[in-house]
Design goal:
268 residues, Jelly Rolls, 2 domains, five-stranded antiparallel beta sheet
């Protein structure tokens, strides 16, 4: 047997336009290879950055020298869950089958415009949370009496997920190479033709949409597959047997960075 790893960036921004549905942080359903024996996903460095301005500012608890550890804990909890707040619930599972594993309070701390949370603590005590094939981590904004996200309220969740594949040992080995291109208003090749191609992942880490074309150099912006900022597009050649050049174009020069992975079979 042999293994192959594919790393995906998690970068999900939540604001008032997202509503209160459960948002999956990444897609773990597509198999990059046709003959998979086993597949796992390892989530690392999963953090949430919150900026809540629609709530009144909350002061830190006032600890006294004589306070015991339990008294300090109760004061902190009273601030955390007794103040005006939003709530972010964390889930594990898949579409229509989510199980809640934690909750955090989203406050507007006085004198400090944002907060950071380590979401990985809800899923594991280790450095990475292991998930079976098809499972993901989801989040949901909950109204606990102060409404959902409003105005300029934002939550940005970031981290990475590594998909680890175990596939049969073959004469041909699996090799994955990174993709990293600055996209301009001129159409350019982002992935060259490759008859041994098995899988392609394209992620837009820029601020503007990117349009991708398969095999056609001269095309117009938005006339193709559109990848929104922080979005991605992936395919296997089993489902989409395309082995030619892949092109990309942006609406504004140097406005978007396209990263990703291409996996191929190479001679062992």
């Amino acid at each position: 047997m042999q293994s192959a790893n594919i790393v995906k960036t998690i970068n999900v921004k939540i604001n008032s336009g997202n509503g209160n549905e459960v948002i999956s942080l990444f897609d773990n359903s597509l198999n990059a290879f046709s003959d998979v024996i086993a597949k796992s996903a390892f989530v690392k460095n999963l953090k949430a950055f919150s900026k809540i301005s629609s709530l009144p500012a909350v002061r830190l608890p006032n600890f006294r020298l004589e306070d015991s550890e339990s008294e300090k804990l109760y004061k902190a909890l009273d601030i955390e869950f007794g103040s005006p707040r939003k709530q972010l619930d964390i889930f594990i599972g898949s579409a229509n089958d989510w199980s809640q594993i934690g909750s955090i309070s989203l406050l507007n701390p006085s004198g400090y415009p944002y907060r950071m949370y380590n979401l990985l603590d809800f899923a594991t005590d280790g450095l990475a949370a292991e998930l079976e094939d098809g499972k993901s981590i989801g989040v949901q904004i909950i109204d606990v009496g102060y409404g959902g996200l409003q105005g300029n309220d934002t939550i940005t969740i970031h981290g990475s997920v590594t998909q680890e594949y175990v596939i049969p040992e073959k004469k041909n080995k699996v090799a994955c190479s990174p993709i990293n291109k600055t996209i301009t208003i001129a159409s350019q090749i982002v992935v060259s033709e490759n008859e041994d191609r098995q899988y392609v992942l394209l992620q837009n880490e820029g601020s503007q949409p990117i349009t991708v074309s398969f095999g056609v150099l001269d095309f117009n912006y938005l006339e193709g597959v559109v990848i929104k900022p922080n979005g991605h597009y992936e395919f296997t050649t089993k489902d989409f047997p395309f082995f030619g050049n892949i092109y990309a174009i942006a609406d504004i020069d140097n406005s978007s960075q396209l990263v990703g992975t291409e996996c191929n079979y190479v001679l062992g």
